[in-house]
Design a protein that fits this description.
44% of the residues lie in helices and 13% in strands. The chain is α/β, with parallel strands linked by helices. It folds into 2 domains: 36 residues; 294 residues, Alpha/Beta hydrolase fold, catalytic domain (Rossmann fold, 3-Layer(aba) Sandwich). Strands 1-2-4-3-5-6-7-8 form an 8-stranded mixed sheet, sandwiched between helices. It starts with 5 loop residues before the first helix and ends with a helix. The structure holds 2-acetamido-2-deoxy-beta-D-glucopyranose (3 copies).
């Protein structure tokens, strides 16, 4: 009867004592594994600021690999220049400037100065993109969105925060990435000098960055023309509690102490639901119902917080809910057929209100 299934054959000939020993062994291994996963690892996590930062920023996840940032055309970006800025905190930041469709065939735009002149004399809106965690400014879903902006005849500027892409390594923290982004936005606003409207677009973790930047600038009475928040969360504490990966730890009585509190205590907070109070420009929130990285409910919470401060007034803040049936999830709202119209009418309204 004993066929060639190794395990069956083995245990058929075991005595009951051996079997009990074997079961004890299994129990012991299970208990130790449980203690390691739900006890030891969380405690290490609680005390390691380095691990918390790595999990939050995921900047070590470099995808695509080995991008030559100086040759954007190799990843399919036309009319794009690569350049660097040295921030006020002496961090070297890598950026791309992408020309609008109507300037693509202009063969005289080649040098850095030519490109910068295009921003100085911009007639079309300019979008500054702040990306989410992991990857870099050449990641695929980001390229898709730049190409959409380009096809809508908008200028685009995108960049990598410190420690991402080919930007310089520097102390990675909320205030670090926020100050890099604030520097880039101020640099852009200064160059454009009011000749064209500048919009900020944040995605995922980049929504936390952009809301924080705009709140800081609001205290200096500086704002862009408008802010788009794609797949945003209300704050990191809620994002950590609702993230799918957290769900296996949520049954632990010490979940909050282990996972949520250390981020807060270490100033990794991204409290957009507080910062949004200060923002003075119109805001458009975009969120897909089937987002399984930042649940839709968190975008809605941010929207409710904004309404609470600014009133339910579409000139100040509005939210577009994207049906789960489209399957866009966390990263691919850029494929939404209505997105160009949503962006264009938002831009149009902002410009109309500015000239009124
Ligand atoms: C640019 O040139 C290409 C090829 O010559 C042409 O197909 C395209 O329509 C031109 N685009 C613009 C915006 O002029
Ligand atoms: C910026 O715009 C202001 C007002 O339109 C103008 O007075 C100023 O000269 C401009 N600055 C530069 C550097 O072009
Ligand atoms: C905001 O106003 C719109 C239209 O007036 C309404 O449909 C919506 O339910 C309101 N939202 C909240 C959260 O009050």
């Amino acid at each position: 009867m004993c066929n060639n299934y190794y395990l069956n054959c083995k245990y058929m000939h075991q005595s009951p004592i051996q079997l009990i020993r074997y079961l004890f062994w299994i129990m012991k291994v299970s208990i130790i594994t449980y203690l390691i996963i739900f006890g030891l690892l969380p405690i290490i996590f609680h005390y390691s600021y380095t691990i918390q930062k790595k999990i939050l920023f995921l900047n070590f996840v470099q995808w695509p690999l080995n991008v030559d940032f100086s040759k954007p055309e190799l990843v399919g970006m036309k009319g794009t220049r690569n350049f660097y800025l040295q921030t006020d905190q002496q961090v070297k930041i890598g950026l791309w400037q992408i020309l609008p469709q109507s300037l693509l065939n202009d063969s005289i735009i080649t040098t850095d100065d030519d490109y910068e002149t295009m921003l100085k004399n911009a007639k079309r809106p300019i979008f500054l993109y702040m990306h989410g965690n992991s990857g870099n400014r050449a990641s695929n879903h980001r390229l898709e969105l730049y190409k959409l902006f380009q096809s809508l005849d908008y200028h685009v500027v995108c960049f990598d925060y410190r420690g991402y892409g080919d930007s310089e390594e520097a102390e990675l923290s909320e205030i670090g990435v926020v100050s890099d982004s604030k520097y880039v936005l101020e640099w852009l606003l200064k160059i454009v000098n009011g000749t064209a409207p500048v919009f900020v677009w944040g995605h995922s973790l980049g929504t936390g960055v952009s809301v924080h930047v705009l709140a800081l600038l609001a205290t200096e009475k500086v704002q862009p023309a408008g802010l788009f928040l794609e797949s945003p969360f209300n704050n990191i504490a809620d994002e950590l509690s609702e993230h799918p990966l957290s769900q296996i730890f949520k049954h632990l009585p010490w979940f909050h102490w282990v996972i949520v509190e250390p981020f807060y205590d270490n100033y990794l907070r991204f409290e957009s639901d507080k910062h949004i109070e200060k923002i003075q420009c119109p805001i458009m929130i975009l969120h897909a119902e089937d987002d399984n990285i930042v649940p839709f409910a968190l975008g809605e919470k941010l929207f409710k917080a904004a309404i609470n401060y600014h009133g339910n007034d579409t000139n100040r803040v509005q939210m577009t809910r994207i049906d789960a049936t489209h399957g866009f999830g966390h990263k691919y709202i850029c494929r939404y057929k209505n997105l160009p119209n949503i962006i264009k009418s938002f831009v149009h309204e902002v410009r109309k209100n500015q000239t009124d």
